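Notes from hallway chat w/ T.B., transcribed later so I don't forget. T.B. wanted the structure written out for a chain they're using in a teaching module, and asked if we could keep both sequence and structure tokens in one place. Agreed to drop them here.
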Amino acid sequence: QVQLVESGGGLVQAGGSLRLTCAASGRIFRVNVMGWYRQGPGKQRELVAVIPSGGSINYADSVKGRFTISRDNDKNTTYLQMNSLKPEDTAVYYCNAEATVRSWGRVQSYWGQGTQVTVSS
């Protein structure tokens, strides 16, 4: 199957920056879409940014102009550069990938374990 491992979370002061990394591994045939979601205290998981193989990148309105998503297709890795962080950005950030496993034709959705991002005021 596919495993996703996130890294780069931590504690940062408001206005600071962090870069999250998500690396996919396993019997990957193709990764179609990679993205980042987050779940803050008492909230449901929400989309932060998604980057497909083609087409336009999609960002949540709350992070537009501050966050940048990118990917390295050769390494099956996605990055989330987070600038001008705000306390409301505090959440567990999860990596997501829609991928096809070798010898299994269907596209499946996979999730990482999450990495904590805490922004102090």
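Follow-up for T.B.: The chain has a mean pLDDT of 95. Might be a good example for the class.
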